[in-house]
Amino acid sequence: MSSTTGRACPICGKTESLKHCASCKRVSYCSREHQRQHWKVHRAECTHRPKQSSDKSSPSAIDNNMVVVVEIKSGQGDGLANPMVKHLFDSLIEAKSYIQERLGYARLEDMKEFTEMPFLTEFMKFSSASLYVDPRCNAFPPLVGELIRQRLQPLLQAQIFSLYEEVNSRYYCYGPEGASDMNAMVIFFGCNIDDGLTRFLNARGDAFFIGATAEHQPVTSNILYGAAHFLRDAMTCYSDDEMTEEKRNETFAMWSSQYSRGAWQPASGNGGVDLYDTNPFHRVVGWPIVDHRSGKNFQ
Fold it and tell me: What pTM, to 2 d.p., does this model score?
């Protein structure tokens, strides 16, 4: 047979009275019979796939340059139920400018970016993780002398992560009236591996997260929901007096291996949420999507 492209029939080589393939216009045939005979060869490269070929113009097409920002709402209990909003932007600078405006920073260069989230980067293998919080109600350690901080932080965190009934309202980040501006999910994300203490102990207000998975896919609300469960399960290991540090690290390494294969699931279940879904256009009930991209409006 001849080449699958060109101005000659690929079956007989005839060059006169040819008709193009109606789908791709790249291959010519002398008869319908020869086109039918050649279809098995030509099908793989024929461009008659209008829905696939036009996907890039679709508002829901995943653009490699698109930036996904996950807004983590505050005041929601144990850190597993925080409402989240996915924001889609054309570029990182546009995403950061939006966060700057929402958080009330006067200048973009003044906006603080927190990247030390050891469980997310060490065990869940996020290739990048950036957190932005309200500067008016967040001032993370060290705020005082290091020695004082070391003595006070375990006591303060015990109040948040205690399972005793009398401090349950603080653990669940609720105030006396059942409402609080504390952000339990962000508090979890700041936990250290060596002692389980969080560097985001007083995280308050709505927060914004930009990150990428180990496969350099965007971190979505699904991924952060899984991360919150990962941290919640991990914290139970620190409260187990019989679990040694070596055993604890072995457990975390095992979970990390499972997570890298898409096999890890939280002890309490996933609530019907795909914890590994990185497609920002997939909807989850209660987690809206806001498309800020120019000329596009994902619905």
Answer: 0.69
